[in-house]
Amino acid sequence: MSIVYSTLNKFIDYWKDVEPSKNAYKILSERYFLKTPSGEYLETKWADICRRVARVIATAELVNNPAMESKSDSEKLDEVKSWEETFYNFLLSRIFIPNSPTLFNAGMGVRHELLWKPIEQMTLEDYWEIYNSRNHLHMLSACFVVPVEDSIEGIFDAVKEYALITKAGGGIGSNFSRLRPKGSFVAGTHGQASGPVSFMHVFNSAVGVVEQGYRRRGALMGILNIDHPDIEEFITAKEGNDGEKVLKFFNISVGITMPREELLRLYMEDGEIELKHPKCNTTKKVKVRELLKKMAKNAWKTGDPGLAFLSEMNKYYAMYPEMVIESTNPCGEIGLAPYEACNLGSIDVAKFYLDGQFNWEAFGEATRLAVRFLDNVIDVNVFPLEKITRAVKDSRRIGLGIMGFADLLYLLDIPYDSPEGRQFAADMTAYMAIQGHSESNRLAQEKGNFPLFEKSRYYREEGFAPFAMGMSKFDDELRQVLSESKYGKRNVAVLTIAPTGSISNIADTSSGLEPNFLLAYVRYMNKHDGGKEALFYVNRVLEQKLDKEILEKIKERLVEKGSLKDLPEVPEHIKRVFVTAMDISPMDHLLMQDAFQRYVDNNISKTINMPNSATEEDVLNIYLEALKLNIRGLTIYRDGSLQTQVLTSAKNLKTKDAPKVQFFVLDEKHKLRPKPRKDTLRSVTRKFKTDSGTTYITVSFDDNGEAVEIFLSNGTELAEAIGRLSSIALRAGVSAEEILEQLRKVKGTYTPALAKEIKSAIDDFVELWGETPAETIDTFVIDGTAKTAEEIEKFVTANGLQWAEGYYIDADGNTYCPSCLSKNSIIKQEGCTSCRKCGWSKCS
Ligand SMILES: [Zn+2]
């Protein structure tokens, strides 16, 4: 093998000996280790995953490497083994991790013995068997775009394609603008069309039916162009979030098809756009200001819709106008032509910091090796549709990105929200573009061009650049590399910045290009005696840089506040560098997105975080600023806006349908919370006469015959107070026996006598209502660890939760993580919903 990664190898050697953290292992064992259908673990170490994935990806060299053909079998074997070992160490070091579908599905269909057999014993036949036995589950890509045509046949073909891709575990985006608007004439039926939004519900339901387990939820992107006659209905499509009618699997975005400068001009001049559709004779004019205001209002409320600048994507698309990008994937980082798919992977840039410096050379070599890896993924991928296989092989699009950016800036002492931070981002990404594109050019010489190359602008257009540039010292060098693309290119696009949710947790680094959301958090570990121990996790860079004594003093407040901002003990320079997502102004978020996008040929997944106090006007201003920058998509998230969506139907849950379970629920402040009271309960009432009057005692019982409420009335405050406090204690899981024990200890005559009467009321229950069969009572603690599907189901039913947008929500609008059930721990980052307690991420 002629390619040497000498500087990179030094970093690989260092990092492959660093074990993944407990937290990383928890995620691996909950979701990533391969299991038999009966649940037995086939993998128990990160190294096992790395071996399986590296081995499968290396087999691509047998089929996509023309130099192999002239080699003898033993040379071929050496070559494949050598690539397996290179990829294995690369993955083991966690410097590079591919997207979750690759980790999940590489090796599907292959005999298990072959996946972890010692490499010395591997034969060429073994590698061929691996390659040839991949089955229909061997789907390694994350992103898909499916076109939706304006006919009943076309729509239902697409629905079927959605079902197949969802089943395979991919996220799908579509542009629904071809569908004729609501109310327009349908020939042959004398009927009226129901419009794109109503059809999106069909897609949503289809995905809901085929959705598999809870490892990956169905994730969809629906786009409607800004000039479609139904755009106003579309903007508010997710407004009435009642858990039933809402398009729960869809992120929605308004497609901006005109140049962004044009949209900004129309806004400034208070101009109008014409809403029109070729199948519809009537047109309508709408003020751009009204439309944008409406979008801002809804985004302020719920985060939807986002904006997808399709014109910008096509401006920089190497196949435009031959082919057109009409939609993105669910998180927005990849714009695709119809039936294209893309596989992604990310490099942890924080791992290249050594001795006070960022090692450019090693980072460059890692970029090159990762490009080869992702290019190989294309040749071992199995897609559910032949049309996708063809489109992917024609373009060979890959999406290499980064993670660990925030941690790297901490290490370099550069604030994220500063000109230096943005400059570093631009230089780093420009350098990555130089290495990534030059490797794609080189691979074309070694393995051949992507089949559409001669139709591409790389071949046809002198000086074509797939991004804006203009900010880095590397611009000239990058232009040089891009101009060499005219001699050949392996991939239509190379870079992206994708959400890295779970894989950044596996790499023990910060997520994608995003700032950290938290600098410290608490997780609970089981102790031998059955109790729980609270463990503090502090950002590893902060731990290195902040004085130990100060850290010890502030850590509890840091967990609570989530930011160093208001902690007087912390030195100013540390505060300035260790900023979190909520410390950073929306404009600084936006400028960082611009800096990255200038050097990325695919798109970027980033969320513009706004404080809860932000107004609709603030959101609108961010839109206008975005129109002046090099931005291809916009997702905003106002802190707390997920929690304030009010549900109406949750209240209609029938109490008799709730299972007989009892939960001790720890909420975000680690306190016991009462479980909800049902509307109808069985009860026993007793009359208790004393010298001072009569007390009525009513004890109510749940379906298990457990006392859950005590109601006391004799016209005094004391009786009512005892009743109310006892009831809330009962509902929080304190036993009736313990409560009565406390009441008996009260010095006086009334309360201990009352305790005795309450005891009698409880004893009367069996006599009056009969024996309730003993039920097993489940108890578990909400502490940031993943729950089983069964536990989740019970919890959700018992608490009357509704499914909304990828998480659960209660009648008061509180959110619950779909993995660990933590309350109000759901945030939006990287254009994606994630849990800050357990690291769960909707897209990973
Ligand atoms: Zn969680």
TrEMBL record:
Residues 19-108 form the Ribonucleotide reductase large subunit N-terminal domain. It holds the Pfam family TSCPD. Residues 141-637 form the Ribonucleotide reductase large subunit C-terminal domain. It is an enzyme of class 1 (oxidoreductase). One of its GO terms (molecular function) is cobalamin binding. One of its GO terms (biological process) is deoxyribonucleotide biosynthetic process. InterPro entries: RdRp_reductase_class-2, RNR_lg_C, RNR_lsu_N, RNR_NrdJ/NrdZ, RNR_R1-su_N, TSCPD_dom. Its EC number is 1.17.4.1. Keywords: Cobalamin, Cobalt, Deoxyribonucleotide synthesis, Disulfide bond, DNA synthesis, Nucleotide-binding, Oxidoreductase. Its cofactor is adenosylcob(III)alamin. Residues 675-761 form the TSCPD domain. It catalyses: a 2'-deoxyribonucleoside 5'-diphosphate + [thioredoxin]-disulfide + H2O = a ribonucleoside 5'-diphosphate + [thioredoxin]-dithiol. Catalyzes the reduction of ribonucleotides to deoxyribonucleotides. May function to provide a pool of deoxyribonucleotide precursors for DNA repair during oxygen limitation and/or for immediate growth after restoration of oxygen. Belongs to the ribonucleoside diphosphate reductase class-2 family. This is Vitamin B12-dependent ribonucleotide reductase. It comes from Fervidobacterium pennivorans (strain DSM 9078 / Ven5).
